[in-house]
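<instruction>
Derive structure tokens from the sequence

<record> Sequence and structure tokens follow
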Amino acid sequence: KILDLNGSLSDVASYPEVEVDINVKTKKALELESEVKARDSRVTAVPYNSYSENEFESLYLTSKGRFTNYNDKTYSITSSALLADQGKKAIYYDYCLAHTFNELQWSKVVETSLFHARNILEAKTLPTGKYHVRFSTDSLKDLIECFSNFYSAKSAMDKVNPWASKIGGQVISPDITLEDQPLYSDAYRTSLFDSEGVKRRALTMIKDGTLKSFLHNSVTANHFK
């Protein structure tokens, strides 16, 4: 059912920048690979090495009179390091995503790939036990995404979500609060509306370990009233 929404919403990002010659971009992309090899003699290959530019545009129009448009542009680079030493091998890759060419962190991608590949190469097994763990932001995000089914109203509606009947109950450590903040000022990109043209707002899914809400679309919101 198409929602009874009308009016327009525009979410068009603009990132003023100076045009960069294609030859400069090509040179920088090739240097990603050569820099990794130059910094460590144990590098045997750079399996992942890339530069890309992407422009996004989407329009949403309904017979109810809703019109939204979205535009964005990104640059990305990836590099990696495959190291070999005394019969052992290790690989790691890193990437950088930016809205302008000049924001790309070329050295960071090279250094991070080498840093982790070296550590993996020299790593030893740990005895079984309890350890304090410090997560990088990306690693913590990946871990949380493993449990994304638990926040899904669709999976709760389909009865494949173990938290389906636990709204208002404690489901996790009271140390944890989980929020969706689409307008978070320090985010890589804010988002003004969803794929049904609904204006986004902050949503708390878990507060101090208590399940407050699932992530909904119009179908699941109607189902759960």
The beta strands are 7-12, 43-45, 50-61, 66-85, 88-98, 178-180, 203-207, 210-211. The longest strand covers residues 66-85. The longest helix spans residues 22-39. Residues 93 and 183 are 30 Å apart (CA to CA).
